[in-house]
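Example (one chain per record):
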Amino acid sequence: MINEASKFPGKDRSDKGKWVGPWMPQWRDRGESGPFTTLRKLYSDIQEASEGLKAKRDALKQSGKFTPAGITDQLKEVARGETIPAIRTAAAEQVRKYRLEIESRRAAMKPFDHDPKDIVSEMRRQEVRAWLRTMTPDKRTEAVRGASDPLIKEAALSVPVELTGLLPSTRVDLTRELIEARYGDEIAALNELDAAVQTVERAVDGARSDVREALGMLEHDFNAEFRDVEDEIDRLAEIRASKPQPKIDFDSVMSSVKALNVDEQEELVNAIKLEQKRADDRAFRDEIARLSGKAA
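Predicted structure:
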């Protein structure tokens, strides 16, 4: 099923009807690059990888040179060396990166800034808490929820709930309300990014399902056949994500680069990018070759 409503067409379901989701028009960056641009490309590349395997299957059938078992063997080699790495690497690296970024930014959101050295503000909050404790539970909750002065809500949230007389559920609601009021635009942006990430994650699952169908394998057999490749991709991605970056003398580098003319600078940048890609590709192919040899 083609996602006709999207500016960036793709399958919103796998071949067996597994929900993937359309790429929404609002998921775009202001410039030519950014998280949505990267995720949009992954969304397309992941689905193209599984479509490529199915095209290979159809070509093998049309050639008439292979038995059904021979076709399956050929497709398994392609799936192990090309298709599954193309699908899995996206989830293991880029999607993981954005998922961690979303979680860390949400975790950093606080309902208010609390400065323990601000004695005057703390004394005011103590007065508010003393005032709240004079009320009945219902009146106390009503007073805090309806407070127009944020200091009242801050007073109720800056100490353990036992010292305020509020219900824990009220405290949770107040915290959420203050965070939403303070970070409304950022929360909305993160929610959109989260939705895009989830769509790419579902695209991975859908493409994986399509590969399994193309191979004519049961899920249990498919997992047993290719789990080692997927686990190794995940392991390498985790190592790369946690590996500390070497310190670079940027002053020295910039001095050298500035001495080059514009064409030489562009040539240098392109050469660095190409070499990095080659190094990553070599390491990845070595691991896949090792796994293929082990499986054989």
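Caption: Confidence is low (pLDDT under 50) at residues 1-10, 248-254.
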